[in-house]
Structures are given as C-alpha cells and as structure tokens.
Design brief:
37% of the residues lie in helices and 21% in strands. The chain starts with a helix and ends in a 6-residue tail after the last helix.
C-alpha cells in the first residue's frame, strides 16, 4: 500500500508539472483564453474552450505544441490519448473532444524538456563547467553539437572555471547580442543562401542563447541577426576547425 501511495504521489506531482508547463506554453502562444487545462488527480485534460473557441491559426499553434507532447509520450514521459468528455452546454448534454495525459514520469518529462539528462551522459567534471544556460537546453541540441560542447569544455574541467566559458556581450544589433571576446564554444548558424548551407559568421554558443528575437507563433525559434531567418537550437552547427585554431593559439585559455 505504501509503495502504491508513493507511486500515486509521484504521478500527482508529475501531473502538476505537466499542467504548469501546458498553461505556460498556452500563455506564450497567446492561446490560454481559448483552451482549458484541467487536472483530475494524476490525469490532465486539455480541451478547447466552448465559450471562447480558438480560430484556425490559434489551433495551428496549439497543434505544434501538442506535437511536442506526442514526442514526449513516445519517449515515455507520459501516456497521451485522444478522448472525449461529457459536458452540458446551454442546458444540453454534449461530448467534447480532448486530450488526456496520464502516468506522468517526472524524470523523463524533465529530460524531454531539457532540464536534466546531460549529466548522465557527460563526465561530471566536464558537466560542472558547462554554462547553466546550455545545460538547461541540453536535449535541444543535436548529438554532434553536444559532443562539440563537451570537447570545448574539457580543457576547463580540471580548473573548474565556469566563468572562463562566459562570453562578454558589449553591444546589441537588431536585438541580438554581438560578442567581442574569443568564442569558447564556437558555432555557426545555417544559411540556405550559401552553397555549403552554413553561415560565415562565427558565434559563441552563449551568444546564440542570448538572442531575444523570436518567431511570433513559435517562440522556441530564434531569429538570425544576419539573415533574419528563424532557426532552432537543433540546427546550430559546431565549428570544430575554429575551436582547433583557438586552442592552438592558446586564445581559449583564461
């Protein structure tokens, strides 16, 4: 009985986390007033508002975020299914389509959100010197980019100097930061206009994370300060050649 109650308590806490994340995302995409999020014990129900239903383009926004939830379910974060709930509208009984989320695994959901995980795959000494803003988004980078981050941070692991990995920001251009110090984690952005598909500009990864300008409907997409195209963190490209040159010249050392 105690084991069962502990499991149920974990599921309730997981449901609270999913409820909070769902409400925050709906607020970010300006759809909170058109959807209802209900927590029934350890189960979450997401449905359209019957009094203030969403118009087409708002439905599209929510479909994008629910696609992320479907991927989270595939990774074992929770169980997700289409369902209907019974309700009374204008005195008449009706069934309303909804999405039900249950059996939430907090650890796996947090991993999908990029709040944990990296420390399980990366040597702890190296993980400790990776900038916090990068660790929080770890799962949003592709495998090659993750390896690049580890390679960049390895020389700093013994010293444990987190501050050596922070880029100084001296100015802003089009609301996107421009750093003038030597990149510690050199990266480039995609550029479909160029033959190689890679931009000419060299950035530090922390500069990319500090870009404030986002897609109006998809806030997870940042805007390239040069091309004005939108990109995801998964598309950020490591520049191993630049890192090698920096390390050879000793410029990457404090």
């Amino acid at each position: 009985m105690q084991m069962r109650s502990e499991r149920e308590e974990k599921e309730r806490k997981g449901a609270k986390l999913v409820e909070w994340v769902t409400n925050k995302i709906l607020e970010m995409i300006n759809c909170a007033q058109h959807y209802r999020v209900m927590r029934l014990g350890s189960e979450i129900v997401i449905r359209e508002s019957t009094q203030n239903p969403p118009i087409a383009h708002r439905k599209e926004r929510v479909e994008l975020f629910l696609a992320f939830f479907h991927k989270a379910a595939e990774k074992g974060a929770f169980e997700l299914k289409d369902a209907v709930i019974k309700a009374e509208i204008d005195g008449k009984k009706a069934t309303i389509p909804c999405i039900k989320i249950s059996n939430v695994n907090i650890a796996k959901f947090a991993q999908v959100l990029g709040l944990t995980s990296g420390s399980a795959k990366v040597d702890q000494k190296i993980w400790n010197v990776i900038p916090e803003e990068i660790k929080l988004r770890w799962n949003r980078f592709n495998d090659t980019m993750q390896d690049h981050i580890v390679h960049c941070c390895t020389p700093h692991a013994d010293a444990g100097l987190l501050q050596t990995l922070n880029t100084a920001i001296f100015g802003n251009s089009m609301r996107s930061p421009i750093g003038f110090s030597v990149p510690r984690i050199p990266v480039r952005l995609p550029n479909s206009r160029l033959e190689a598909g890679v931009g000419n500009e060299l950035y530090d990864l922390t500069e990319i994370l500090a870009i404030q300008e986002r897609h109006p409907q998809r806030p997870e997409l940042r805007r390239d300060p040069i091309t004005r195209d939108y990109f995801s963190l998964y598309e950020v490209l490591p520049d191993a050649a630049a890192l090698e040159k920096i390390q050879q010249k000793g410029m990457g050392k404090s």
